[in-house]
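Box 3.1 A note on notation
Throughout this textbook, protein chains are presented in two layers. The first layer is the amino acid sequence; the second is a token string describing backbone geometry. Keep the layers aligned when reading.
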Amino acid sequence: MKCLHIITPVKDSIDSTLETVKAIMSSDITVPFTYTVYNDFSTEENTRRLEEASHEFKFRLVNLADLTDHPSPNYLLVLQTAQKEAIEAEAGLLIVESDVTVKKNTLQGLFDGATERKQCGIAAAVTTDEDGVINYPYLHAKGNENQVYAEKKHCSFCCSLLTPELLKAFDFHLLDPSKNWYDVTISHESLKKGFQNYLFTTLPVLHRPHGSRPWKQLKYKNPLKYYWLKYTKGLDKI
């Protein structure tokens, strides 16, 4: 793994995205990296803000409207594009979602942790709330604080590094295009290919669940409406 390709897919939720960007660009990291934000059909105003931020913070902005007319979400296209570029550069692919704020040592810590572990497919940072308490989607990790261990469940892509070996072993063009999100599928494929997926509760990141998809807050506030939207509108297919 020669370097890191860090990516953040985003649709609107620009304030939280800018927090994500600032934290990444101010990280203590020695490994060479590039950072790309994939703008998935944000509003004109939010696209303008992203373009301004890309000049200020020196990250690469890809407007998916320039690549496809497929309506958001276009996570599959993002993954396929990023996989190709990462393989060509012999880079690890580090996904940081737009509702996550990394710490100074997160990025370098995941790189080092993945490099040190043979057959590592995915190295994932545990997520916490503002008080440092482990939260969704890693509630099952409570009680395992300050550890690094092989994760038999799936890793979320809130903040996860996919190693070059995994990227080469599983072609993202084989993913089901009818789905919206692929962390479960890719985690399981990693295990099937003989890799280990590791959860780093030693590298907690701040996560504001579903900040990039506010409608999903209904899952907690009005679960009946959430599941009605999920199944009648075909939203959030995992």
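The domain at 3-210 is CATH 3.90.550.10 (Spore Coat Polysaccharide Biosynthesis Protein SpsA; Chain A). The beta strands are 3-10, 33-39, 60-63, 91-96, 100-101, 120-128, 148-150, 159-162, 196-207.
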